[in-house]
Every structure is written in C-alpha cells, then in structure tokens.
C-alpha cells in the first residue's frame, strides 16, 4: 500500500534458489531480517544453511531470485563489496594476523575508518566491549581458538556494520567459551543486526529470539524461539524423521 509505515527490511531474500548441476540446494526461499534483529538459522546437516549463508555473503551466485540490502540488489557482488555496504562477515575459520598482537590486529581494522587518536579510542572501546584487555598485548597466534574468534569479531565490529553474518560462531569452542560467546552476542546485538547460522542447539537456546529452520533446501518453519524449538516438526527433522 502506498504511504505505508511498514519499515523496509534490512536484508531480504526473494525466491532465492541455488542449483548445483541437477541438485537443488536451496529452493524458492523468502526471508527478511529487520534493522537490529537477531535471527538464527538452524537445520540438520544438508538442510541448506551453509549454501544460503554463502549466497548472502557473495561466495556463490544464486541460480534464481534476488538478495536486497536496504533496497539495493546485491546479487553478484564480491564479498568485499558487500562489506563496504555495511555487512560484516565472520566465517568459521578466524581471519586474523597471527604474528601481531591483539591490539595491533584491532588497530589495523580501526584505522580503515579512523585517523590518529580516534583509531586508538576505537581500539580501546573494542577491547573493553569484548573484554580482551587482559590479552591485548599477546600475539594472536599464541591464543586459544575461542579467543581468536572473539578477536575476529572485534575486527568485524570495527567496520561499524549494520548487519553481521556469523557462520557457526560456537564451532570448536569449549563450554566456557561458548557461554562467553553467547554473552558477547547479547552485547553486540545492541548495536547491529545479526544472522547466526548454527547447529549447536544449546548455544541457540542461549542467544535466540527469532529462528528460521531449514530442511531440504526450504524453510520448514520460522518464528519466536520458544515456539520453534518446541515444534514437533523441528524435533522430527533433527531426529531424522520426515513428515509426509
């Protein structure tokens, strides 16, 4: 309706389809995420989560459909072009400089948007927000897996994105690291939207407010976390059962 006050989605997938040869990995998916929203994408292995993530991040080009970010069609954009629009991308493997300290890693990211003292202030804010002050002057290559993941989160946040895409952020973490990562996501969502692709259901229960469930390349169900996680259809697909 013309003149409607309904806000435009931050990011939107319309009729998104991905085929690899004769195999359809994603089929006619419609999904939208609002400004400031935290959305979790879950589903059993092979459900299409990773393929969908790769389309959003520009790693693969959809066979059909389109992806809109604040109304701009981003199909075919390279990952660095997508990042410039205001989308931060955090993959499973940390992309950090092992031979530099935590502070130096953050300084490199901060200096892309700041100059002089402003760079130092940005680094100090991120060290405080992610509670990394105690390891600020340690070499990143000497740190534990979880710490390296948090540092890369800091690098992404220093680009001041409107949306961060996280691919299995809890993968390979200890229980304590997972709990802390959930806490950090709670802090981060106060400043930007997030889409989290994850298979660790315990972690999902820690962070989720709204969930989209993929199964066999399609959206099975989506809605508020409590309702989705108690849905029998969702339980069935995780147990390997298939409804007709």
Give a description of the structure.
The protein is 34% helix and 25% strand. The chain has 244 residues and is α/β, with parallel strands linked by helices. Strand 7, helix 6 (175-188) and strand 8 (193-197) form a beta-alpha-beta unit. The strands form 2 sheets. Strands 6-7-8-3-9-10 form a 6-stranded mixed beta sheet, with helices on both faces. It has helices at 49-56, 79-85, 102-110, 117-129, 145-157, 175-188, 201-207, 225-229, 232-238; strands at residues 11-20, 23-33, 38-42, 64-69, 72-73, 87-90, 163-167, 193-197, 210-215, 218-224. The protein has a domain at 11-95 and 166-238: Rossmann fold, CATH 3.40.50.300. The chain starts with 10 loop residues before the first strand and ends in a 6-residue tail after the last helix.
What are the defining features of this structure?
alpha/beta, 10 strands, Rossmann fold, four-stranded antiparallel sheet, six-stranded mixed sheet, about 240 residues, single chain
The largest sheet is: 6 strands, mixed
Multimer state:
single chain
CATH superfamily of the domain at 11-95 and 166-238: P-loop containing nucleotide triphosphate hydrolases
Low-pLDDT segments: none
Q: What order do the strands of the largest sheet run in, or round the barrel if closed?
A: 6-7-8-3-9-10
Overall mean pLDDT stands at 92
Content-based structural category: alpha/beta
Instruction: Give the proportion of residues in helices.
Output: 25-40%
CATH topology of the domain at 11-95 and 166-238: Rossmann fold
Radius of gyration: 19 Å
Number of strands: 10
Please tally the helical runs, counting DSSP H or I stretches of 4 or more residues. Answer: 9
* Secondary-structure arrangement, i.e. CATH architecture of the domain at 11-95 and 166-238: 3-Layer(aba) Sandwich
**Could you give the order of the helices and strands?**
EEEHEEHEHHHEHEHEEHH
